[in-house]
Structure formats: C-alpha cells, structure tokens
C-alpha cells in the first residue's frame, strides 16, 4: 500500500532538519566560534567548501539541461529538464541559506546591492546568486502554474521561457567560473596542483560535467524511491554526454598541469598529491572510461554508482580547492565540528523535502505525478486498515506521516539543543551558599563541589586566618569591590601599571631593576611583586606562595594552586589516611571533553594529580 | 597627516619588550589577553585583541608583526562591499557598518593579518589600522607602537624616507644585515618595511614562496574585466545556436510534411 522506502527516507530527512534547526539556534545566538571549528588560519570551512562551492556546482544541472533541451532541442532529455531546473532553484536557495549561516553578519547580506566593489570576485558571485535565483524562480513558475486556473499567466511565462533560459545560461556561465575566480588571488594558499590561472575555466567545464552526472543521480534515486521504471534511454544518453564532457575536462586539467610543468607534483607521494589523484579518479577518470562502455550504459546500478562517484569527486574538488589543499600553506588541518556537518546535512535534507513536496503536487515530472496521485486516491478510497503503529493509532496515509515526521523533527531538535556546545560564560561569583554549606563552582559549567569552609577555616587557625587563602585590600584601598579587578573570574587580571613603575623608579635607567641585566626584556619573567611590595600585598601566606607575576591569578589558578598542593601533601601522610583530594577527579567529572583536552595538552600535570 | 606613512622595523634593534603591544592595546582600547587561543589560531600570536605582536625566533631574535598596509592590498580588492578601505593617505582601515562577515579578506591576505572575533555573535574583522583616526585628527604624530618603542627598533616617516633610511643602514653595515628590505617590492610594496639579520620570509604564508613583486589584485581583475564580454558573448552564442537549430528543425519538418503530402498525392 504505502511506500515504506519513501516514508523512511523522508523521516531521516526530517531528523536531519531538526538537528540543523537546533544548531541554527546556537549559531545565531552565540556566534561562529562556538558553533564551528573555524579559526584565523582557516576562515572558510565546510559551509563555504560544501554548501556554497559545492551547492552552486551541484545546481549546475539546471543550466546544462536548459541548454540541452531548449537550445539544442534534444527532446529525449525533456523529462529531465524540469526536475533539473527545480533542483537548481532549490539548490541556489540552499546556497543562499548556507551563506547566511557562514556570514559573520548575515543581516548585512543585502549590502552588496548598495556598496559596490567591482574588483571583488565575491561581488560578482553575490550578484550572480541574486540574479540567477530570480531567473530560476521565473523558470520554475510555469511548472507551478500549469495546472492552476491562472492559464493566462501560465501562457505568458511559457512565452517568456526561451529568453529567460538564455539569461539563465549566461548568468550560470559567469557564476560557475566566478567561484574559480574567487581563488585566483591566493596563489600562496591554494596548493599548486589546484592553483592555475585557468581556475575559472576549469570550474565552468567541471560544472557542466557535474550538472550532467547530478541529473543522472537525481533521476536514478527518484525512480528507486518512488519504485518507478528508470528511464534507461535517457540515462544512457546522459552517460554518453557525460563521457565526452569529462574527457574535455580531463584534457583541459591535465594539459594545464603539463603546460605549467606540474605533472611531477601529482606523483610526489605527499598526502595532498594523493588527494588530487583520488579526486581525479573519482570525479573524472573512472566515470569517463566506464561511461564510454555500452555495457555500463545498459546497467541501472552501474549508471547510478558511477554518477554518484563522479558527483562525490567533483564536490571533493570544490572542497579541496577552497579549503583542504590550503593545508599546504597554513599547516593546520581543520576538521569541521559536528555542528557544521549538522547544518550542511540539514540544509541538504530540507532541500530534498522541498523537492519532494513540489514534485508530488506539481507537474515537474508528469508521469511521476500521475503515479503519486493514483496512489493517493487509492489510499483515500481504501477503508481504514487497522494496523496500529505499535500501540498507538496514528491514522492513515499523510496523517500518519505528518505525525511521525513532526515527532522525529522535534525529537531531533531537542537532542540537538542538548548536545550543542554552550558558550563559555562570564561569571562574577566564586562561591555560593547552598543547602547550608558552601559549594565552589567547578569550571565554567553549572557544576559545584562541596567545600567545607568552616573546617578549612578552623584548620588554618580560626577567624584570623582569612588572609591565608584570600588576598586583602591593598594599602590605602579599602573599598574596591572584587569585581573591579576580577571581571571574569576565569581570566587572569592585570593589576600592574608599568608606566607608573617606570616613573616612580626614575625612567628608562631603571629597567634593570626589575628585568635583570643582559637578559632580553620581555613581559613575563620579571621580578616578583612581593620582593618589593612584601608588606603592601597580602599577609604572609603559608599556602599560596607563588603569586609572582604582574597578573592576579584567575579563579582556576587560585583553586588549583591552593587546593591541589595542600591536599597532595596531606595524602602522602600515611597517618592521616586521607583520600587524595588533589587529583583531578576529586572536583572534576572524569571523562569529560574538557578533561580529555586538558590531559592531552598537559599530560604531566594530569598524572601529577595522582589519578 | 603625512602622505604615504610608513613604518620601518629594524629587527636587530628589537629587544622583545612588547611595549608596542601594550601601547597598541591602550590606544585601540583592546582588552588584555583573553582566554587561551582557539585551535588553529595563527602561530604568530596575532589575534582580534592583539593587532601587533612580537614573534620570537631562535637566538634572541624578535620580529614585530603587524598589518603591512600594502600599496595594493588584496584584502581591499576582495571585499565585496568595500568594508576594507585603502585611505588616500595609505593606511588600510575597516568599516564595520558595511561588512558582511564573509572573511574573504582573511583568506586573501598573504601575511595572514586580519583576525576575527570568533567568540562574538556580532563579530568584526580586527587588524592594525596604523592608528589612522588619531593620526588623521592630529592627536599623535606617529603610531602608538612606534612612540612606545624604547630602542627605536621601529620608526615612522614617509615611505621614501624610510626606504632611504633602510638602504643607508644596509650600506653602512653590510656584514650585519641581510641585504634585502622586506616589503619594499613584495606584492607591489608595503607600508611596513623590515630590515633584519635573519630571513623574514616566515611573515608570509608558506614563507612567501608563491609571492612575487607583482601585486595580487590584478590576478583577479584580469578575469573580472572580461565578465561583460563573457556575459554578452554567451548570450549571443546561445541565441544564434537556438536560431540555427530551430531553423534547421523547421526546414526538416516542412520537408518531411512536404514529402508526406507528395506521397499522399501519388
């Protein structure tokens, strides 16, 4: 009765969309730092490499099929034109959405319309996206209007179709190549195997190849999902076309490398050279050779597999050129955070869902639509079949589907919000009283450790011992609130006024008084404050002896330096039989991400705690 | 404000005291060092809160790094909305009000200078602006970092003067210096020059191996100026192809129809 394959597939898409929605909330409230692994060495990541660079290339099917069907009159491919153009429209929409995620100030995205810089390749890209999105909307309109009562408007758009198609091809030519132009200014970042002055041309030709193979993927996947007869004749024709286009790309790319004398670089065994080989094999060589064999062109599975392989290869090409190959220069391997994958996948999933929605209601593929409608009618006519979904009766047909989809979406949203990274909070409280005892905050999260203040006070010598742990006001300063210096308790605070010291110690001649003679003058290792300000600072302090820099310690430093050494000392005393409260796990949850990061960075300190 | 302001840094004189860093932070109201840097931060120590930094090299060599204020800056040419601007006097400045946050400037800078406020939900690109507002207003006569330098390792003046001074020092002590002025010609010349007793290629990505004396913006402009011709050309090509193919198709249909009629008539 119902198409279980399609039902499960759509459910998975809804889960991905829900996860992305959760990450979107984090991204727009807390910023890029929390939600991505981007950094100053790698300012462009997955969202540019896949969503924008890859997305635009994946949408190339629209202009390629428009040219094949409407300019070259290859009627055989007519069935593929409308789905391809719809995909392009949705794909470009996805690129725009992806950009909104990636831009630091997305609310300024419209600025390119009023502030012009014609010297910027990105300016060209921005205009192409805006114009082509409009053109694609016009190209899709007839499909949406065909079966409505607005027949006059429909006929108007049909008449308009040809000039619009040509405009779309013109804009795509610019746009596909301008993504290559984007990288021309960075010969110092893009690896030589990818960098060439022909980048715009290569991006354009590879977009044509990708356009064709992407149409093949779409057609095969749709016929599998909807259990339709695959259009083998069309697929075989596309495969032949792809074979020729791929050969052209191969000759252009390898020829260009030969012209620059870079052929040797391909086989130098470095990981980037191998990446290049994998990319070329997947995207070009394997599909090119295989598509040329008639036996392969007759096999549905073969065509599907090879088209997927080529799509993967070309997406890898965009990712390599715009990011991965630049490891060569930055020497830092950026790996996207899971949140970045979630957004990229979520956008793709949302696109797929929109595509299905339109395809099941409008004549994108008339044969397919007839099939879907027949199934729908059959479902409506059939008496309710009492086949409960587990113990709960969810209804039949679209009712059940809607309920299940909403449920998985919300569930994924909730899971995503729980798992999404949180910002490092700025805290100005150090200890709070709860349930009658003092608890200390541990780390930036909402976690606390029990701290028996009275017992510590008693052991340190009663009411007079405050200064053992807490520093006092400085001389002549009796009213400064803690927060003035300790704005964020997790950061060290600078309380040192260098200029005042230089002036008080009679100018530049006094450098050596603090910085030492013959040593290069640098900021950190200077004379201990306490050497001069013994009496000004704090009372003689038996526990914390080494506040020696010009920085006031952070809360973390204070906690670590006060708690750990003393507790380790006590644990050594066999008579006391105390557990070692100086180890990390005494206060911190073990196995947390921050602990792992910490032990990876400072293995010696982690073991010194005596876990 | 003087025309073509320029900073000359003599690496042999720098003692690494970081007074320049402190002065820079003060005049630009930058916070003291924040949380530990993100993974993947630039190894030179520059950050959104630290617009100049002293890179420590082996054997007590200290190299102050800052924005180079190129004569033909790549960051300015790539900014789609002109948020990065080359002022008429020379310094390269940033206008947050226009910025989209695309970070293309960060990608295009051969020296990896612009840095981002990753921790903010309303982030800016931050980098040295050569104290442009204060210089322009006349409240200072040289950038804060130069003013703060106790050893005159970094000095300020018109670009021609600074090049002449650098040449003079190279000539006066040929054995001491590497005979090269970094920034004199690379990528079309920069307004921050260096002379040194150690090679300073590390200041650029990939040790500057892919950089020449040619400025970077023309690399893109060569393609971009073709855009109108490409656009129109493609339109003409597609239009005429359509016309030719359609005409041939119609002829063939007419012929077929004619042949059919003839056959019908027989």
Question: Can you describe this structure in just a few lines?
Answer:
Chain A is mainly alpha-helical. Chain A has helices at residues 4-30, 32-35, 46-58, 61-71, 78-102, 121-145, 151-184, 199-225, 232-259, 271-291, 294-297, 300-322, 327-330, 338-359, 366-381, 397-419, 453-460, 466-469, 482-485, 498-504, 511-515, 529-533, 555-572, 584-587, 593-601, 603-608, and strands at residues 431-434, 437-441, 448-451, 493-494, 551-552.
Q: How would you characterize this protein structure?
A:
The longest helix of chain A has 34 residues, at 151-184. Chain A contains 26 helices and five strands. Among the domains of chain A are: 36-233 and 331-336, Formate dehydrogenase/DMSO reductase fold; 431-555, no CATH class. With 611 residues, chain A is mostly helical. In chain A, helix 9 (232-259) crosses helix 10 and helix 10 (271-291) runs antiparallel to helix 12 (300-322). Chain B has 266 residues and is of the alpha+beta class. Chain B folds into two domains: 5-215, Alpha-Beta Plaits; 226-265. Chain B has helices at 19-27, 74-78, 104-108, 132-137, 144-148, 159-172, 217-224, 227-265; strands at residues 5-10, 53-57, 61-65, 84-86, 92-94, 115-116, 125-126, 154-158, 192-195. In chain B, a hairpin with a 3-residue loop joins strand 2 (53-57) and strand 3 (61-65). The mean pLDDT of chain B is 91. Classes of the chains: A mainly alpha (611), B alpha+beta (266).
């Amino acid at each position: 009765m119902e198409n279980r394959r399609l039902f499960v597939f759509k459910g998975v898409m809804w889960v991905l969309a829900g996860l992305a929605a959760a990450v979107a909330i984090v991204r727009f409230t807390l910023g890029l730092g929390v939600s991505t692994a981007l950094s100053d060495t790698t300012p462009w990541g997955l969202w540019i490499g896949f969503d924008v660079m890859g997305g635009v290339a994946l949408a190339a099917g629209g202009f390629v099929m428009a040219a094949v069907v409407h300019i070259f009159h290859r009627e055989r491919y007519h069935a593929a034109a409308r789905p391809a153009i719809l995909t392009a429209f949705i794909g470009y929409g996805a690129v725009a959405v992806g950009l909104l995620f990636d831009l630091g100030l997305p609310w300024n995205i419209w600025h390119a319309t009023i502030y012009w810089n014609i010297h910027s390749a990105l300016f060209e890209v921005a205009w192409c996206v805006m114009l082509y999105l409009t053109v694609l909307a016009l190209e899709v309109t007839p499909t949406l209007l065909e079966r409505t009562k607005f027949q006059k408007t429909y006929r108007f758009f049909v008449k308009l179709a040809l000039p619009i198609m040509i405009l779309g091809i013109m804009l795509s030519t610019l746009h596909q190549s301008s993504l290559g132009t984007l990288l021309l200014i960075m010969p110092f970042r893009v690896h030589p195997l990818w960098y060439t002055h022909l980048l715009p041309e290569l991006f354009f030709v590879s977009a044509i190849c990708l356009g064709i193979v992407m149409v093949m993927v779409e057609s095969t996947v749709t016929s599998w999902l909807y259990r339709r007869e695959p259009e083998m004749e069309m697929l075989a024709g596309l495969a032949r076309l792809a074979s020729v286009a791929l050969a052209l790309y191969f000759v252009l790319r390898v020829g260009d490398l030969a012209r620059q004398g870079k052929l040797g670089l391909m086989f130098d065994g470095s990981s980037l050279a191998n990446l290049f080989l994998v990319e070329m094999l997947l995207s070009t060589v394997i599909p090119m050779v295989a598509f040329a064999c008639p036996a392969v062109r007759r096999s549905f599975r073969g065509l599907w597999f090879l088209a997927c392989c080529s799509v993967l290869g070309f997406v890898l090409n965009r990712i390599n050129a715009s990011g991965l190959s630049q490891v060569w220069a930055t020497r830092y391997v950026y790996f996207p955070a899971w949140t970045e994958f979630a957004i990229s996948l979520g956008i793709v999933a949302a696109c797929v869902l929109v595509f299905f929605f339109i395809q099941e209601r409008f004549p994108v593929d008339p044969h397919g639509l007839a099939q879907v409608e027949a199934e729908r009618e059959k479902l409506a006519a059939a008496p309710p079949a009492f086949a409960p979904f587990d113990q709960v009766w969810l209804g039949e047909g679209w009712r059940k589907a809607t309920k299940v989809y909403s449920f998985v979406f919300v569930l994924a949203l909730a899971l995503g919000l729980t798992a999404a990274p949180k910002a490092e909070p700025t805290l100005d409280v150090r200890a709070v009283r709860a349930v009658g005892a003092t608890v200390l905050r541990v780390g930036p999260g909402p976690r606390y450790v029990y701290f028996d203040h009275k017992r510590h006070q008693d052991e340190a010598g009663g009411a007079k011992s405050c200064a053992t742990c807490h520093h006092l006001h400085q001389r002549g300063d009796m009213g400064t609130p803690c927060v003035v210096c300790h704005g964020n308790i997790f950061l060290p605070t600078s309380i040192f006024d260098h200029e005042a010291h230089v002036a008080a110690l009679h100018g530049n001649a006094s450098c050596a008084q603090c910085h030492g003679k013959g040593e290069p003058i640098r900021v950190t290792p200077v004379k201990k404050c306490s050497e001069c300000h013994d009496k000004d600072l704090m009372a003689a302090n038996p526990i914390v002896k080494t506040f020696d820099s010009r920085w006031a310690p952070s809360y973390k430093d204070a906690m670590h330096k006060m708690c750990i050494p003393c507790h380790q000392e006590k644990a050594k005393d066999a008579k006391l039989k105390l557990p070692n409260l100086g180890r990390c796990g005494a206060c911190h949850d073990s196995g947390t991400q921050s602990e792992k990061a910490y032990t990876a960075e400072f293995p010696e300190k982690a073991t010194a705690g005596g876990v | 404000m003087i025309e073509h302001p320029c900073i000359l840094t003599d690496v042999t004189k720098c003692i690494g005291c970081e007074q320049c860093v402190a002065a820079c932070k003060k005049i630009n109201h930058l916070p003291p060092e924040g949380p530990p840097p993100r993974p993947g931060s630039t190894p030179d120590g520059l950050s959104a809160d630290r617009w100049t930094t002293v890179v420590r090299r082996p054997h007590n060599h200290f190299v102050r790094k800052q924005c180079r204020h190129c004569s033909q800056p790549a960051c300015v040419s790539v900014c789609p909305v002109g948020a990065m601007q080359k002022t008429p006097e020379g310094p390269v400045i940033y206008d947050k009000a226009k910025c989209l946050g695309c970070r293309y400037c960060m990608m295009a800078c051969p020296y990896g200078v612009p840095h981002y406020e990753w921790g903010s939900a309303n982030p800016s690109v931050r980098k040295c602006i050569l104290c442009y507002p204060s210089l322009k207003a006349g409240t200072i006569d040289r950038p804060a970092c130069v003013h703060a330098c106790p050893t005159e390792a970094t000095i300020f003046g018109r670009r021609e003067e600074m090049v002449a001074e650098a040449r003079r020092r190279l000539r006066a002590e040929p054995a001491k210096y590497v005979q090269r002025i970094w920034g004199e010609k690379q990528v079309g010349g920069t307004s921050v020059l260096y002379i040194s007793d150690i090679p300073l290629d590390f200041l650029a990505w990939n040790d500057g191996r892919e950089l020449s004396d040619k400025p970077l913006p023309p690399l893109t402009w060569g393609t971009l100026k073709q855009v109108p011709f490409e656009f129109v050309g493609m339109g003409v090509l597609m239009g005429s192809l359509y016309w030719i193919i359609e005409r041939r198709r119609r002829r063939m249909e007419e012929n077929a129809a004619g042949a059919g009629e003839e056959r019908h008539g027989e």
